[in-house]
Amino acid sequence: MKKRVVVGLSGGVDSSVTAYLLKEQGYEVIGMFMKNWHDDSVTISNECPWIDDSNDAMIVAQHLGIPFQAIDLSKEYKARIVDYMFAEYQRGRTPNPDILCNREIKFDVFLDAALKLGADYVATGHYCRKGEIEKNGVLTYQLLAGKDPNKDQSYFLCQLTQKQLSKALFPIGELLKPEVRAIAKKAGLATADKKDSQGLCFVGKVHLPDFLQQKLEPKKGKVIEVPSNAQAFVNGFTEDDLTGLTQAYEFHPDLGKEVGEHNGAHYYTIGQRRGLNIGGYEKPLFVIGTDTQRNVIYTGSGDNHPGLYRKGLFIPNADEHWIREDLKMHEGETRKYDARIRYRQPLEPCVLHKKEDGLYVIFDRPQRGVTPGQFTAWYHEDELIGSGVIN
User: Fold this and answer.
1) How far apart are CA 378 and CA 388, in angstroms?
2) CA torsion through residues 18, 24, 26, 30, sign
3) Average of pLDDT values for 80-98?
4) Which of 48, 128, 158, 201 is catalytic?
5) Which of 309, 205, 296 is nearest to 249 (CA)?
6) Catalytic: which of 48, 101, 158, 350?
7) SS3 state at 240
8) Which residues pair with 139 in a beta bridge?
9) SS in 3 state form for 89-152?
């Protein structure tokens, strides 16, 4: 009897080829399009309109001769992703909705809907791979980087659980992007030359200020420039002082000078350059800190400003996650891994220190733009071992 797979058809070439390959491999394939958003007023509609994507997904399903249906998950998406995003931005943190979408929507709500259709697996067009290890009769699943170094998307799946991985398939993880497009062309898929989508998971490219202004009101505040020699934390910490190494810089009102005005500290994120609209500087200004309580943005001139860099980061116990639960660290333990703090960032050597209050990640080299609310993920070679929300 054929195994049944529900493919999350997004209307793009990656998920289209995913469905094609699974059918070729002998699976019973069902295509399903997720509608996660109804408000087109904040999307840049000509970038990634969901109606066109849904139609493209349906055309591909018809071409492949597989059943197709659309599922409206906008209620769940609002509750689990959008409301969380608003809350995080209001706190002066920067969430990653794509990671949350995979954890909360694709491999939770969508997975449940697929299982109700009798599916054995769900499949997505992610550039990553799934491995298996059997030890003492126990099967452990691995999340491995995609073969294409330019497209590896394992980072976006860093919050998956063993249970979720057990039901997941990633057919294009062994392929390079040009190979995926070549397969699509040869198979006559309508999405073969379609441009890759950008923006929120299954929503499209969103104009973030407009999006946030639905709930977060604009509020005028000061932009303060902090000189490069005025940080509260620059030097003086030893490698044993984990708290000091992972703390963000503290900026006091008397450290810098007012250089402009902004429309709300909650609209800005660490490392941001665009959107400040402040000229007259030889080197560009970057956001190096935000204070949503006082509605102040702190900036530094030049991309080598020390305020942009931190040697480490901290993950509270509640925000620590291990895909490889068998490798979870115990209090007092230290371990070497490679980690990244954003998608596409090259992996950086680091040491994880497990303490009573959480996990301290100390990098060999200071990292640029360590941002509260974002995720860090740590790897052993090409396997993603665990992840956590940066405090």
Assistant:
1) 9
2) positive
3) 91
4) 201
5) 309
6) 101
7) coil
8) 134
9) HHCCCCCCHHHHHHHHHHHHHHHHHHHHCCCCEEECCCCEEEEEEEECCEEEEEEEECCCCCCC
Domain match, 199 and 248 both: no
Structural domains counted in the chain: 3
Domain harbouring 195, CATH code: 3.40.50.620
Residues of 342-376 as b/e, b for ≥16 C-beta within 10 angstroms? bbeeebbebbbbbbeebbbbbbeeebbbbbbbbbb
Residue 53 scores a pLDDT above 50: yes
Tokens of 331: 């209090």
255 lies in which domain range? 221-308
Regarding whether 142 and 291 lie in a shared domain, the answer is no
Nearest to 64 by CA among 208, 190, 213, 234: 190
User: What is the H or E stretch that residue 336 is in?
Assistant: strand 334-340
Q: Where are the alpha helices (DSSP H) in the chain?
A: 13-24, 50-64, 74-77, 83-90, 97-101, 110-116, 162-166, 177-186, 208-212, 242-246
Residue 101 a catalytic site member = yes
Indicate the angle between helix axes 50-64 and 13-24, nearest 10 degrees: 20
CA distance 316 to 60: 44
Q: Whole-prediction pTM value?
A: 0.92
In this structure, the answer to whether residues 244 and 99 fall within a common structural domain is no
Residues 267 and 212 sit within 8 Å (Cβ to Cβ):
yes
DSSP reduced 3-state for 226: coil
Please determine, for residue 209, whether its predicted confidence score (pLDDT) is greater than 90. no
Write out pLDDT tens, residues 2-39: 999 999 999 999 999 999 999 999 999 999 999 887 66
Q: What angle separates helix 177-186 from helix 13-24, to the nearest 10 degrees?
A: 70
Q: Please answer whether residues 140 and 122 qualify as being in contact, where contact means their C-beta atoms are separated by less than 8 angstroms.
A: no
Domain end residue (candidates: 280, 308, 336): 308
Query: Same domain for 227 and 290?
Result: yes
**Active site annotation includes 48:** no
Q: Parallel, antiparallel, or unpaired for β 168-169 and 121-123?
A: parallel
